[in-house]
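Annual report, structural modelling task.

Input specification for the iron/sulfur cluster complex:
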Amino acid sequence: MSALLRVENLVKHFPIRRHLFGRQTAVVHAVDGLNFELDAGDTMALVGESGCGKSTVGRLVLRLLDATAGKVWFDGEDLMTLAPERMRARRRELQMIFQDPYSSLNPRMTVEQTLAEPLALHGLARGRERERAAELLNLVGLAPQYLQRYPHEFSGGQRQRIGIARALAVEPRLIVCDEPVSALDVSIQAQVVNLLQDLQRRLGLAYVFIAHDLAVVKHIATHVAVMYLGQIVEYADKRSLFAAPRHPYTQALLSAIPIAEPGLKREQILLQGDVPNPIDPPSGCRFRTRCPYARERCAQEVPELRAIEGHSVACHYWQEIMAPQGVVERVVVNERLVRLQSAFRGG
Ligand code: SF4
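The model returned the following structure:
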């Protein structure tokens, strides 16, 4: 079976000009040669520090941005070359859930108007818009009597549920979730993530889940792509990636997740320095300026993303780099993580 979504050599460069119509003076390398696949019913998490290009990938997949190069195959069609008419039809199958439930809803529209708008846009549920809006509310765990209320009358979690209902109105097959829970309180985060998983099971949805919180990713993802400066440095199914990260950057990110057991913590790998400027990324391996294992070759040769023991890793020396050894010291437990994990368990 071929993948629902296949991204091939995707590139997005943003030109920088001194004036609106001036000549180009530099280029931001936001996304540089991305490849991944996603099947129906699966969740691909894109993780990395802010500015690594993950949100740009989400917008490219939905063709809210045009790519500089590369292809985005959705159900056998390259979205990057689709004629506007055909793309309009495809838009129905590709939706987005935004990070901020406060600003993603129109404050002047009732819930019913908010949910009826995409139906009207795509000519769906004609003559039964109210009934469909009530069904959608029910689908996301809200009562139909909320239809006449305005966004300011809801909590953050309820507003995000309305945002999800709006995305579901047009019966999509793929949803890009751009940090959908990061603006919510921890216990509400778990409820929304559980709702997204439940909807995925019931409706066969595929998610591209953009996040920086690896505790959330560990719960929802089936596959994880770790991004650094516009490139994927490691890609694997969730279980393999969390059990045995191969790339030094993945190891550093995972080492920062506290363990939710009283008094225990992993040995944390602290990265030196800041993420380099994407206008002038380092030669060779882009991670080399912060990598504790960097050698001469790393500055000269770009490491390819190679399939290795169930992972794909972009590092010349992955075989010599061991994952940090489990739990090593006693420290104060991370309260936030304990709350998050017990909320996921329904405790
Ligand atoms: Fe570090 Fe070199 Fe591997 Fe890059 S290629 S991650 S700099 S060891």
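The longest helix spans residues 186-203.
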